[in-house]
Design brief:
By secondary structure, the chain is an alpha+beta fold. Helix content is 33%, strand content 11%.
Length: 219
């Protein structure tokens, strides 16, 4: 996993994350989780536009993640109910993204909640959702990150299993076989445009599909 960026000649920051196998070849298990995270990233990109609340895009990513993990037998039950209960946060214990500008986490020194939340918006106290830095309604010209992830954290898995946390939505027996997996995060920088959508910053998207990663790393 590489999470990095650069400062442009105008001093604006970038922030991107990509993950690749050391030799560029994904195992079946690695590719399955990778494709779920990529689907979450792409779904957010497709639905993000001026006027939407980024908190809602966080839930788009969360439901994509939960649906994918349910398909692998790691999660179970109703996806909407699982996300509402915060069961997906076992695998993504952070928010979807943050504002970006002259600083990688732009203006957060003024107060993360002040910058990332609109008037009368309250930060959730639910595990995972409480870490959402950007929840407010998006406007044309906003620049921010889209960085869903899926992580398998042994200490957190053990805690939830011992306490029975969200046991109706998580198949802990199946989950045991992923304890040594690690994690995947795929991060792009988005700009809200005037044409009713958003675009990924940069002239060309950094390689991100399984095929692109294999071709890039394998060279």
């Amino acid at each position: 996993m590489v999470d990095c960026g650069f400062e442009s000649s105008m001093r604006y920051a970038t922030d991107n994350t990509r993950v690749s196998p050391v030799d560029g070849k994904f195992t079946t298990k690695q590719q399955e989780i990778y494709e779920i995270v990529l689907a979450a990233n792409n779904n957010v990109n497709a639905q993000t536009k001026a006027g939407v609340y980024y908190r809602d895009m966080h839930f788009v990513a969360a439901k994509t993640l939960a649906q994918g993990l349910k398909g692998l037998g790691i999660m179970k039950g109703d996806v909407d109910e699982a996300v509402a209960a915060g069961a997906h946060a076992l695998f993504q214990p952070h928010g979807l993204g943050h504002m970006m500008g002259l600083d990688v986490h732009d203006m957060e020194d003024y107060g993360e909640t002040y910058v990332g939340y609109g008037k009368n918006m309250q930060r959730s106290t639910q595990f995972g959702l409480s870490g959402l830095r950007l929840a407010r309604q998006l406007e044309v010209g906003n620049v921010f990150t889209n960085e869903p992830g899926c992580y398998f954290i042994p200490a957190l898995i053990d805690k939830w299993k011992a306490e029975g946390t969200n046991k109706e939505f998580i198949n802990f027996d199946k989950l045991d076989s992923y304890r040594d997996f690690g994690g995947i995060r795929l991060e792009d920088d988005l700009l809200i445009t005037e044409d009713g959508g958003c675009r990924i910053m940069g002239d060309k998207r950094i390689p991100i599909t399984v095929e692109e990663i294999a071709n890039t790393v394998g060279k």
